[in-house]
Specification:
Elements (H helix, E strand, L loop, with lengths): L1 E10 L2 E11 L4 E5 L6 H8 L7 E6 L2 E2 L5 H4 L2 E4 L11 H11 L4 H14 L15 H12 L6 E5 L7 H16 L3 E5 L3 H7 L2 E6 L2 E6 L1 H8 L2 E6 L5 E6 L2 H9 L5 E5 L2 H10 L4
Parallel strand pairs: 3-8, 3-9, 6-7, 7-8
Antiparallel strand pairs: 1-2, 1-4, 4-5, 9-10, 11-12, 11-13
Helix pairs in contact: 3-4, 3-5
Amino acid sequence: MIRLEKINKSYGGKFKLEDFDLQIDRGKFVSLLGPNGAGKTTIIRTIMGLLTPDSGRVYIEGEQYTKDSTEIKSKLGLVSQHLNLDKELTIYQNMVFAGRLYKLDKAYMKERIEYLFEKFGLQDHRKKKVGQLSGGMKRKLMIAKAIIHEPKVLFLDEPTVGIDLVSRKEIWTELIRLKKEGTTILLTTHYIDEAENLSDEVILIDNAKLYSQSKPSQLIDNLGKVTLQWRNSDYEEKYSYHRDLESAREEGQNLQDNFTIRNTTLEDVFYNFTKKKVI
């Protein structure tokens, strides 16, 4: 569905993307993980045609994509990390505005709005102005706007930042439903549990380069399924990773400090990637 070939993009002589290759298959839910400044948002903006790469090519469904590719643009949806709602308009008016931007037929637009209001629990709030909404409802509305035209690819740039856990999990449910309906989804997030729970694949990037693209379970297996965790005499938290429980217990018995043995998570993978580059 998405292919990037040798993408280069720099600002002020510093690479944001360097000889960057990427392939995402149709219908997959893929998360981009990396520290701040790694290039996650640059990737999304480049694929969307909002940034022009210095060199390289972007393909959507096998067709080369540029900022002038109007037909391809109609297949894409974007939820940015910054709120892009009109605070003076109601929820319903915001949706109508989005539908008109995509030049939807009026009858179809109305049908889509009612469907999305029901799915996102917005039907009883349609007359509220955006300024009256909670953070979670604003995020749901942004996603509803982004998919009003039934895009084949949905880009989510920190879609749940700053909202409560309940709202986050409600949004997860809708994203999983979209994926099951065949939408290809590319997510950036700082919530590692979000990536672990939702993703078919996780992409680790840093310093403008792609380091790994694998299933979350494979990344965990590569590091070690079992984690031994303890604090040393200087109160520093330490970790070691093991293939099995027996190996972790054996090392733990040799420690003078209290320790914990638990299953390794994607957060451990991310910590090791950003701090030690062991993957």
